[in-house]
Automatic annotation (TrEMBL):
It comes from the Bacteria. This is Restriction endonuclease. The lineage of its organism: Bacteria, Pseudomonadati, Pseudomonadota, Alphaproteobacteria, Hyphomicrobiales.
Length: 202
């Protein structure tokens, strides 16, 4: 499944304009990373229900309802005070529940007899600006730290946008993360997911 609406293209601020092609930044918001990973779990595992727990800022920056509607998900129920909270259902039986909340894992699914719990971060994926590249680095480190502090059982996955820099950092971190029971997944601009696996001898 190939997505063309995960990335928002916006004019870069003047101080960062020279660090991106044509002065346009490609932003993959955290909400985009969440829905991409949620649909990845539906497509590639036996899970048919995934829960997403965004905070209020994520809903302001990413149109959950519109994006899911374009994927064939109809909003069946509403929960909470936001316009996007509720359960979305696909004709093939898939369900995605969006419940704005913190501390529950950004993306959670039951796969067989275990739970997959993912922490997600977004960022600008086409920039050479040192500060923004550093934010992507920090995002990966923060997701790993949140998972280490979490009491959620089962598989734990740190999920951030795919760039050459995040791939390089994830490859360095993967062996230590694996020893802590934490996986790393990178989401590409069109929703493709790369699992970063610890190589032997590292």
């Amino acid at each position: 499944m190939d997505f063309d609406d995960l990335v928002e293209q916006v004019a870069a601020p003047e101080k960062r304009a020279s660090k991106v092609a044509d002065g346009i930044e490609h932003k993959m918001h955290e909400g985009a990373v969440m829905v991409a990973y949620a649909t990845h779990l539906l497509r590639t595992t036996e899970a048919n229900h995934v829960r997403i727990h965004p905070d209020g800022e994520h809903g302001k920056r990413f149109d959950f309802t519109g994006w899911l509607a374009r994927r064939g998900f109809d909003k069946a129920t509403s929960t909470g005070t936001t316009t996007y909270g509720g359960e979305y259902r696909h004709e093939n039986g898939w369900r995605i529940t969006i419940h704005p909340s913190s501390g529950k894992g950004d993306v959670v699914a039951e796969v067989g007899n275990h739970t997959v719990s993912a922490e997600c971060k977004g960022g600008i994926i086409n920039t050479r600006h040192a500060g923004q590249v550093s934010r992507l680095y920090k995002g990966l480190c923060e997701t790993v730290g949140l998972l280490m502090a979490s009491e959620n059982p089962g598989r734990q996955v740190a999920v951030v946008p795919y760039t050459e820099n995040t791939l390089r950092l994830a490859t360095r971190m993967a062996p230590r993360c694996a020893r802590a029971g934490i996986e790393i997944a990178l989401v590409g601009s069109r929703g493709e997911v790369t699992d970063v696996v610890a190589t032997s001898g590292r």
